[in-house]
Design brief:
The chain is mainly α and about 140 residues long. About 70% of the residues lie in helices and about 0% in strands. Helix 1 (about 1-40) packs antiparallel against helix 4 (about 75-95) and helix 1 runs parallel beside helix 5 (about 100-120).
Length: about 140
Amino acid sequence: MVGAVIAVFFMAVSFEALKKGRKFLYVLEAQRRNALIREGELPSALGGAVSSAPPSLSQRDVCRGMVRGMFRPFHLLQTLLQGVQFVLGYFLMLSAMTFSVWLFLGMVFGTMVGYFLFHWSPVSGNGYSSFHDDHCH
């Protein structure tokens, strides 16, 4: 039982680290894309929504840009990390559903330690951490 509590504790810490890591990667990618758009290396129409495309771009060019965007290394990495976060979240939920007080306490303390270790500094551009995106998965 002690081993299971320790495992759940570290899964909860890892879950918090993964949430912060994904948010950090997103901010880095947004900054990189904004810099490329400002420098003119990335057309904003191909980096933005389909409706913002200027009339000089054909629908085919816009679709190619969307497909290229879907298969960017950043998006593929975020997709993989989303899957890992999803699985970790459901493992934690299943451990809570066993109604074992010790597993639940391991999960609660793991989440608290993970939050303490990884969420001490906001990563948003305005200097404030947003609570509206602090969800399970």
